[in-house]
Write a structure and sequence with these properties.
Length: 498
C-alpha cells in the first residue's frame, strides 16, 4: 500500500498525500476495484520532502542531472533504484543502440526507477527511465535492448505528430509533479492518471517505433527477435495476474498497446533480417547484472503474503477472506474473487481533529448509506463503525476503523443484491497490529540467479520460489520457458526468494 494520507498534524510536519479514492461515490469505487488499473507504483513518503537523486549515468557527453523536473518525476515514481551493475548494463546497451541509430550524436541519460511495475519510457530531453520490474521480467540483453530501441525510436523519429505528442508528455510530467508536490489533495489522482498517458503513442507511431527499433537492434548486434520475446513475456505476465482475478497495475500494455498483431509485425521484421539467434543475446551477462535486484513491493510500502497484507510502517495487518486475491496498488489494497463477483478495498482516509468514525464514512462515501445501518463496534480493541450502502449493481459493506492515530476504510462489495456478510465480518475481525518483531522479520523479495543441476526441472526450481502466487507459472514466465519446456543443466535461471 504505497498510497498515503493526510491527517491533522502539528505545525512543521510535512503533509502526506491524501488518497484520491477517499471521496469516490459507490459506483466509481466499484469501477476502481473492478479495474485495479488506475494505480501505479508510488512512494508512501512525505512527498513534500523531495531529495534530488544522484546523477544518472549518461551516454555521450554529460548532461545536468539534478534538474527539478527530473528529480520530481523520479520521486513520483518511487525514487531512484540503486543497482550499479544493472545501471551499468542498461547504460552500455543504450550507448550501443544510439550508435546504431540514424542520430548517433544524440545523448541519453538512464535512470532506474524503484517500481515493480513493468515499464520504460523516454522523454524528448534524452532521458530514459526503466523500472526494476522490467529488469526482472526481461531474460537477456537483447530483450532489454528491444525495449530501449523502441523508446529511442520514438525520440529519433521526430516526425511532426510524434514531436508534438512527446512535447505534451514533458508538459504533463511538469504539471503533474508540481500538482503532486504542491496540491496533495488532488495531486495523487493526477499522478496516477499521468502514468497512463506518459508513454502513450498512436497505433501508427507504435508500429513505426517497433519497425525502427528492430532494425536498430540488428545494426547494434543484438538479436532482433528480442522484441517479440519480450512482448510475449509481457503478455504472459499480465495474463498470469488476470488469471488470479486481478488485472495488473498499468504497465507497458497500458502505455504501449501490445496486441498479437504487434507481436506478429515485430517477428516478421526480425525474420526479414535473419534467423532467430542472430546477434548477441548475452543472457549470462544480463542475469549476472540483475542478480539480487528487488522483486515486487518494498516492505516499507506493505507486503502481501498469500491472503495476508502487512504494513510495517503503518503498523497494521489483515487477512482477506478465503477466495480473494490481493493487489497492493498505489492508493489502496484491492481484492477480488476469481469470478469478480466480490471485491474489497482497504485504504487510509483523511480525518479532522475530533471527527467521529460515522462522520468519516459519510464524508468519504458520496452514495446513500442505509438509514439506521450505522453500528459502533470494537474490532480487536480498535474502535470501528460499520454501515451498508446499496447501488444498482453492487451491495456494499463499509467500515471505518481507527488504529492508533490512523483511520482506515474497509469496504467489501458484492455484485447484485447479495449481502457480502459473513465474509465481511471475517475480514474485519482479522485486522491487527503489526508487532515490532514481525516488522523486523519482513524481508523484501529479490531475484536470485541459480544454475540448474542435473535432474532439476521447472517444477523443482519453482518450489524454491518464495511468497509468490502460482510459482510454477511465475518461474516459466520469468525465465522465458514455455509450459512443459525443459530446464537445461548448467544454465542460469531466475528465482524469486526472500
Amino acid at each position: 500500500m504505497r498510497w498515503s494520507f493526510t491527517r491533522t498534524q502539528p505545525a512543521g510536519r510535512a503533509a502526506i498525500a491524501r488518497p484520491a479514492a477517499a471521496l469516490l461515490p459507490a459506483a466509481a469505487l466499484a469501477l476502481l476495484v473492478a479495474a485495479c488499473t488506475s494505480d501505479q507504483t508510488g512512494a508512501l513518503a512525505p512527498v513534500a520532502a523531495v531529495v534530488p537523486p544522484e546523477a544518472p549515468r549518461t551516454t555521450g557527453r554529460d548532461r545536468p542531472a539534478n534538474d527539478a523536473d527530473h528529480a520530481k518525476l523520479v520521486a513520483s515514481f518511487g525514487g531512484e533504484y540503486k543497482a550499479p551493475s544493472a545501471l551499468r548494463l542498461v547504460s552500455d546497451v543504450t550507448d550501443r543502440l544510439v550508435k546504431a541509430t540514424e542520430r548517433p550524436d544524440e545523448t541519453y541519460a538512464v535512470t532506474l526507477l524503484d517500481s515493480p511495475v513493468v515499464n520504460a519510457f523516454a522523454l524528448p530531453t534524452g532521458r530514459i527511465y526503466v523500472t526494476r520490474g522490467l529488469l526482472a521480467l526481461a531474460d537477456d540483453t537483447s530483450e532489454l535492448a528491444a525495449v530501449l530501441a523502441h523508446e529511442i525510436a520514438h525520440v529519433t523519429l521526430r516526425h511532426a505528430s510524434a514531436r508534438t505528442e512527446m512535447a505534451l508528455r514533458s508538459e504533463l510530467v511538469s504539471k503533474v509533479v508540481a500538482d503532486v508536490l504542491n496540491d496533495p489533495a488532488t495531486g495523487a489522482l493526477l499522478q496516477d492518471q499521468s502514468r497512463f498517458v506518459l508513454a502513450r503513442f498512436s497505433r501508427t507511431q507504435e508500429f513505426e517505433a517497433d519497425q525502427t527499433g528492430v532494425r536498430t537492434l540488428a545494426r547494434a548486434g543484438y538479436d532482433p527477435f528480442g522484441a517479440s520475446r519480450f512482448l510475449t513475456a509481457l503478455n504472459r505476465t499480465t495474463a498470469l495476474r488476470a488469471g488470479s482475478g486481478l488485472n495488473s497495475e498499468p504497465d507497458m500494455l497500458a502505455t504501449h498497446p501490445s496486441t498479437p498483431e504487434r507481436i506478429t509485425q515485430v517477428t516478421q521484421a526480425a525474420r526479414r533480417i535473419g534467423a532467430p539467434g542472430l546477434g548477441v543475446d548475452d543472457r549470462n551477462r544480463y542475469l549476472a547484472a540483475i542478480d539480487g535486484i528487488a522483486y515486487g513491493d518494498n516492505p516499507a510500502d506493505g507486503l502481501i503474503r498469500g491472503r495476508r497484507f502487512i504494513h510495517p510502517r503503518l503498523g497494521v495487518a489483515f487477512e482477506a477472506p478465503e477466495g480473494f486475491g490481493l493487489d497492493n496498488t498505489a492508493r489502496a489494497v484491492l481484492g477480488t474473487t476469481p469470478d469478480g463477483h466480490r471485491r474489497l478495498l482497504f485504504d487510509a482516509v483523511e480525518t479532522n481533529a475530533g471527527q467521529g468514525l460515522e462522520e468519516v464514512l459519510k464524508a468519504t462515501w458520496n452514495d446513500a448509506i442505509e438509514t439506521g445501518s450505522f453500528e459502533n463496534r470494537m474490532l480487536n480493541g480498535f474502535p470501528a463503525v460499520t454501515a451498508v450502502s446499496k447501488g444498482k449493481e453492487w451491495f456494499f459493506r463499509l467500515a471505518a476503523v481507527r488504529v492508533g492515530t490512523n483511520t482506515f476504510r474497509m469496504i467489501m462489495a458484492a455484485r447484485g443484491t447479495t449481502d457480502p456478510e459473513p465474509a465481511f465480518g471475517r475480514w474485519l475481525s482479522s485486522i491487527a497490529l503489526v508487532t515490532p518483531e514481525e516488522a523486523r522479520s519482513l524481508k523484501p523479495l529479490r531475484i536470485q540467479i541459480v544454475t540448474a543441476a542435473p535432474g532439476d526441472t521447472a517444477e523443482s526450481l519453482a518450489q524454491r520460489m518464495t511468497a509468490v502466487d502460482r510459482p510454477l507459472e511465475r518461474f516459466q514466465v520469468l525465465n522465458g520457458l514455455d509450459k512443459g519446456g525443459p530446464v537445461r543443466a548448467g544454465l542460469p535461471y531466475k528465482l524469486v526468494v526472500e
